[in-house]
């Protein structure tokens, strides 16, 4: 929590100061972006979920601070998720079998705000590097709990009932929205991200990046988002 508050305070303090240096219209431009997400969860079987993102973005040049420095920001719809191996415990007994598992599909509206630097490689080619925080609001989600009792060996009916009860207690039921469970879920995600890529003719951009979530969207399991991205953008 201290890390989260520090990031929010730093962003709040820095944005007005940075924007002061981008007062000229020529220093500000807008564009569109879209791409692919390869996401997984901070805990579990590390199975990737292939999603997408699409949105708008802006850049505010900061030439009075340093030549090539700019502020990169935007608003995008993004799809994340992954598979979590569920470890359940009741009455001092842990159930650590490969199943049950929780399969999550999460859909966010996301605002990234990053500081970037543009390295001029040639007259038509620039190298872009950006890093900074993002904040996301969960719009809708879906979780699917997979539990196949006949794959478990040496499990008594009483133990199966205990596992089923724990799934209901902590993960609710199959095909539900994890964001709607106010006891175990949270819609807000805050994290850090970085991107590196190329810009062609000052318009076309191709970027690869990584986003590291800091807030667990599932409190009981302490699950956090991890996301690799490949993006295409066109700046007007």
N-to-C series of helices and strands: HEEEEEEEHEEE
Which CATH top level class fits?
A: Mainly Beta
Report the span from N to C terminus: 38 Å
Q: Helical region count?
A: 2
Radius of gyration, whole Å: 21 Å
List keywords for this structure.
236 residues; Porin; eight-stranded antiparallel barrel
Written overview of the protein:
The structure is a single chain. By secondary structure, this protein is mainly beta. The model has no long low-confidence stretch (mean pLDDT 80). The chain contains two helices and ten strands, in the order αβββββββαβββ. It is elongated and about 70 Å long. The two termini are 38 Å apart.
What is shown here, in short?
The chain is mainly beta and 236 residues long.
Layout of SSEs?
Layout: H1 2-20, E1 28-41, E2 49-61, E3 69-85, E4 88-90, E5 93-95, E6 101-120, E7 125-146, H2 157-171, E8 188-200, E9 204-213, E10 225-235
Antiparallel strand pairs: 1-2, 1-10, 2-3, 3-6, 4-5, 6-7, 7-8, 8-9, 9-10
